[in-house]
Design goal:
The complex is a heterodimer. By secondary structure, chain A is an alpha/beta fold. Chain A has one domain: TIM Barrel. Chain A contains 18 helices and 13 strands. In chain A, strands 1, 2, 3, 5, 9, 10, 11, 12 and 13 form a nine-stranded parallel β-sheet that branches. Chain A has a two-stranded parallel ribbon with strand order 4-6. Chain A has a two-stranded antiparallel sheet with strand order 7-8. In chain A, strand 9, helix 8 and strand 10 form a beta-alpha-beta unit. The longest helix of chain A has 26 residues. Chain A is globular and about 60 Å long. The two termini of chain A are 27 Å apart. About 5% of the residues of chain A have low confidence. By secondary structure, chain B is an alpha/beta fold. Chain B has one domain: Alpha/Beta hydrolase fold, catalytic domain (Rossmann fold, 3-Layer(aba) Sandwich). In chain B, 35% of the residues lie in helices and 19% in strands. The longest helix of chain B is centred in the last third of the chain and has 18 residues. The chains are: A alpha/beta, B alpha/beta. The interface between A and B is medium-sized, with 24 and 24 residues.
């Protein structure tokens, strides 16, 4: 098993009430940008990732978002390139480059090849469709999001593997002369791990290609369902899916005692936490979701942001947010904090508590890799590093040992699609909901 | 119950849906009324239903309202990637049906389509009515960005006074059923697909419209929040002979916000 480290590199100096008044992190005015603190923190995040390697994390994971103080990684490949040079052993996992919004797959192929070369083959690349808000930020037509994603991916794989020069005339991308003189160090190319939040279309796409799917803190029961769906498709493709096909990212924070961890872990709620990543109107732009997904959403019995429920929509209006104060919002968020911990979607506590909860996740989801997502909000570097140290020195060895006992193997150690399966044979399950039943989570 | 124009409800004209074959595409068209054909091009949110103004016009004209590909009933055509492509498709339809020259009323993005059709073939329309048309970048102001807002916000922005516009309830009555929601999302998705960039206009359109001789009426509501007056100014600049009818205190849907005035100015223009 691989254990990885991840942080969103949050902007820690933006006043929380500004985010709350805006109703979301996305679209907070950059008039609050502070160049001195940003310069400090961009350097700090590099140092923190190097520290993760020094502590023994197998993987350092980066992501990017745009126009959003939730995450300072706006151009992840820049950070990855620096880490490629500064680190020595850790795999550099990108979760992931938002292909549809970046619009230039040849340039992407070159950038990633350079990172892989500088790191001498430690890049694990990943692709995402980009959050809804990113489509607006980058003026990327959301109706073509999935087409851009698939065409850019197919093009990049060709650019890495097909000797040039050659000409490419696709639907959305056109290149007269494809002949990059930066090709990946790894042959035929770096592994691709695809992060997601359980879009069935993406899960299917991964299974067809044998790409590991990485659940981003997704609800455990639903994740089991989608992973079995992956395994069904894998069987149609002729292989038995296993732990190497799956990874899981989980918000996690450790301190010496449960009490201390619980207090500091509330940083995950900063500005409303992940639930206020972007306002509803920025979350699902027109055409961004498939027709099936729109149908699923529109039939949610409780209504949704979509306008099916006027009340819910009304509650998200910016004007109404302005009337609320930060303390009241925090009080309202606390039950959610507790629910998320009960559901194992936040794992917070002493090393013992965190180890046991991660073991439960491992029993249920059977991922080959786990990436822990460090806390958000204005938590000090010292507290962040303390959590990292406890995670690396006390938790990681225990969960790795446990992984060995239940046969969890990562995709680097055992590349996917190795285990063939005959048509008509009963495949092995890839998840186990048993522990969820015991925990009352079904 | 009296119709606003004095006709009895029993005289109401029934609109029907027909499916036409246009170059192999099954195009669904709403058809109603009798008399000389009148082409209606709906707006970016789709055909809103048979309204009072449709009923009035249908007593003297045969209304032909094609339901845009990708808007639910007519399947999406992948090769249509711009409003100009859509205009080309509708031009085929008009020629196939031997309707040209025909009178047209285009609403908002439908006005954009009509203008593209006229720019490509100046003889396709006998008269052209553009109601709050998109398609040309306004000289002042901006066309409202309708994509980073929810459908509810968008719909409410299309009329100056939602509560004071009874027919608006037929389009958006508050809560939506999942089916209605899905239809609006289809419309938004297709509108974004072909109108995302440049946003709901085509920089070459004003150049190609120069010198157009087709009698043209530009209708605009003085409280329109979606299409600014700058769009009307821009159209007027390239079609100097165009008449302009500004209807006071209405927004982006003058045809339902002040139907009598809308019917008056449009009927007079078409009859002249």
């Amino acid at each position: 098993m691989k254990v990885g480290y991840f942080t969103e590199r949050p902007v820690r100096w933006v006043p929380e009430e500004v985010i709350l008044k805006n109703g979301a992190h996305f679209a907070v005015s950059n008039k609050y940008f502070d160049r001195e603190r940003a310069a400090d923190d961009y350097n700090y995040w590099i140092d923190e990732n190097c520290y993760a390697e020094e502590l023994g994390f197998d993987v350092v994971a980066l992501n990017e978002h745009h126009g959003n103080p939730f995450c300072m990684g706006s151009v992840m490949n820049v950070e990855a390139a620096i880490l490629a040079r500064l680190t020595k052993k850790a795999h550099i996992l990108l979760i992931g480059n938002p292909l549809p919004v970046l619009k230039h797959p040849l340039r992407m192929a070159e950038e990633l090849a350079e990172i892989d070369l500088i790191s001498r083959g430690r890049l694990i690349t990943g692709w995402v469709r980009g959050a809804g808000s990113e489509q607006f930020f980058n003026n990327a037509n959301p109706s073509y999001n999935r087409e851009y994603f698939e065409e850019a991916h197919d093009f990049i794989v060709q650019a890495w593997t097909k000797p040039g020069p050659w000409r490419y005339e696709g639907k959305h991308f056109h290149y007269r002369h494809v002949n990059p003189w930066a090709l990946p160090y790894q042959k035929p190319h770096p592994q691709m791990w695809i992060p997601g939040t359980l879009s069935p279309e993406t899960v299917l796409w991964c299974a067809e290609r044998g790409y590991p799917y990485f659940g981003l803190g997704t609800a455990l029961s639903a994740t089991c369902d989608l992973w079995e769906y992956y395994a069904d498709e894998a069987q149609r493709q002729g292989y038995q899916a296993g732990s190497e096909n799956f990874g899981y990212l989980v918000p996690a924070f450790v301190a010496e005692t449960d009490e201390k961890a619980q207090e500091l872990g509330k940083g995950f709620l900063f500005g409303g936490g992940q639930n206020t990543f972007a306002r509803p109107e920025h979350t699902l732009p027109p055409g961004y979701n498939s027709k099936d997904a729109i149908r699923r959403l529109s039939k949610q019995p409780q209504g949704s942001w979509l306008g099916v429920s006027g009340e819910k929509l009304k509650a998200t209006q910016v004007e109404e947010k302005k009337q609320l104060d930060a303390e009241e919002i925090h009080r309202k968020l606390l039950p959610g904090y507790e629910r998320a911990q009960k559901a194992h979607q936040f794992v917070i506590g002493s090393p013992k508590t965190v180890t046991e909860k991660l073991k439960t996740i491992m029993k249920v989801l059977r991922p080959g890799s786990i990436v822990v997502f460090n806390v958000q909000g204005p938590i000090s570097n010292q507290d962040r590093q303390n959590s990292m140290r406890l995670m690396a020195k006390e938790v990681a060895p225990a969960i790795k040992e446990f992984a060995g006992t239940i046969g969890l193997v990562d995709a680097i150690t055992r590349p996917p699609r190795q285990s063939k399966i005959q048509a008509g044979t009963k495949r092995a399950p890839v998840s186990d909901k048993g522990p969820l039943k015991e925990l009352g989570l079904l | 119950m009296q119709h606003p124009r004095g006709r009895m409800v029993s005289d109401m004209i029934k609109a029907t849906e027909e499916t036409l074959n246009v170059d192999g595409t099954q195009l669904v068209m709403v058809k109603g009324g009798s008399g000389k054909p009148l082409l209606i091009l709906h707006d970016e949110l789709g055909y809103p239903g048979w309204m009072t103004w449709n009923e009035s016009f249908a007593h003297e004209r045969t209304l032909l309202i094609p339901l845009q590909p990708g808007y639910g009933k007519t399947r999406r055509l992948d090769w249509i990637r711009t409003y100009r492509d859509l205009a080309g498709f509708y031009s085929h339809m008009v020629r196939d049906m031997k309707l040209d020259p025909i009178d047209v009323i285009g609403f908002s993005a439908g006005g954009f389509v009509a203008a593209e059709m006229a720019a490509a073939d100046p003889r396709i329309f006998s008269k052209m009515v553009l109601v709050a048309p998109m398609g040309i970048k306004p000289e002042q102001g901006e066309i409202m960005d309708v994509f980073p807002i929810t459908i509810r916000t968008h719909l409410r922005a299309t009329v100056a006074d939602p509560a004071g516009t009874p027919e608006f309830a037929k389009i958006y009555g508050g809560e939506m059923t999942p089916e209605q929601f899905e239809a609006f999302e289809d419309a938004r998705a297709e509108c974004a697909r072909i109108g995302w960039e440049p946003y709901m206009h085509n920089p070459s359109l004003p150049h190609l419209l120069q010198g157009l001789k087709t009698p043209t009426l530009l209708v605009w509501g003085s409280s329109d929040r979606v299409v600014p007056g700058g769009c009307i100014d821009a159209y007027k600049r390239v079609i100097p002979a165009a008449q302009v009818a500004t209807i006071d205190k209405v927004g982006h849907r003058p045809e339902i916000e002040n139907s009598p005035e809308f019917e008056r100015v449009v009927s007079r223009f078409l009859a002249a």
